[in-house]
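Hi P.,

Sorry for the delay on this. The queue was packed all week, but I finally got your sequence through. Input first:
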Amino acid sequence: MDAKLNEVRDQAESRGFVTYTFKVGWYNDAVGDAFKLPFEYDALGVLLLSSPDMFELNFLPYLKNNRTQEVHRDPIDSSVADFVSHLKEGILKDEAVETYFDYEKDPQTRRPRILMQTVGHVSGAAFYYQQMHVTDSESSEKLCGVSIHPDYGGWFAFRSVMVFPHHFLPRDLSPKPPVDVVPGNEDRLKLLLLFNDHWKDNRFRDIIQPQKRYSELQQKYFGTLPADRKILVNDYLSGLPP
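Then the structure:
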């Protein structure tokens, strides 16, 4: 399985994704009963996050290759699902894999199928800063948490999780804590307030100095209302040769 995971990692990197492994039990320990996954404690999980390069390396080629097909959901989601399907039908074709995506909800409860930011934290990918990490907060409002990556700051996204029910990590393996890149209480509060009250201007993403940010085109895409993104997609495709 190690060889397959290495190939998954390499293919992911070539498309602008980064992979992190974790035990399902680490995730289950961190969430309430409603969000626990029905697998053994040591079962192998793989988190897939998109780096700033994913837009140019995976999304735009996906649009080019599927320009004649009608996309029925968000094109970013479709491009990620297409890449995961590519893995499952190729490298992982002989493996049992349960997949989760950041946009999926349970059809009955309408809750997310998985809490991606928690996976990001327990896998060591990115520290998930929450209100409980701030002391002496003068804010009386409930503040939603946000994850910050040590390399990309806030310029990334959790996209998918693959669980391999028949493969297990060593029983004595302990989780690797994520890097605490915003250690000060004042900066943590600033981060949460920027994310909750000013998320549209992207300042929360630069709470640390990132190694790379989204390209100008990518920022324009994500800064456009979802209902209006089709215009940007059509503009991009119209500029390509037939």
